[in-house]
Design goal:
Layout: H1 6-19, E1 24-28, H2 31-42, E2 46-54, E3 57-64, E4 66-67, E5 70-71, E6 76-78, E7 87-88, E8 102-107, E9 110-113, H3 114-120, E10 124-130
Antiparallel strand pairs: 1-3, 2-3, 4-5, 6-10, 7-10, 8-9, 8-10
Length: 131
């Protein structure tokens, strides 16, 4: 299956699994999606992720996190899309919900959060917002 926006596909799978309170969801593997999953884990939005191999295909199994019946991920939105790239300098870096959420940013130093980008004083492409 050919996807024009694999990152949006990953975020949609996580959003849909979170909406129906599934324990886990599988996403086709790529290094960028693995780094996004790592950021979601570090920031406490998912409990864990691991790389699983099914034949010769690699998948990322994302284990979602809940607080009882409460969802940890309230919202997740793709910002920069293949048809419209969104870039930001460090001065214009957005704050998601006044700092309660995170922006995932692709920079020259890798994929990092908006807070890390401000700390390192670099801008980049705004991939997604998570809150």
């Amino acid at each position: 299956m050919f996807l024009t926006d694999p990152i949006a596909d990953m975020l949609t799978r996580v959003r849909n699994a979170n909406a129906v309170m599934h324990e886990k969801t599988d996403v086709p593997h790529s290094n960028m999606k693995e780094k996004i999953a790592e950021i979601l884990k570090q920031e406490g939005y998912i409990s864990n992720y691991k790389i699983v191999t099914d034949g010769n295909k690699k998948n990322i199994r994302v284990y979602l996190k809940y607080d009882g019946k409460e969802r940890i991920i309230k919202g997740i939105k793709r910002i920069s899309k293949p048809g419209r790239r969104v870039y930001s300098s460090v001065e214009d870096m957005p704050r998601v919900l006044s700092g309660l959420g995170i922006a995932i940013v692709s920079t020259s130093r890798g994929i990092i959060t908006d807070r890390s980008a401000r700390r390192e004083n670099i801008g980049g492409e705004i991939l997604a917002f998570v809150w």
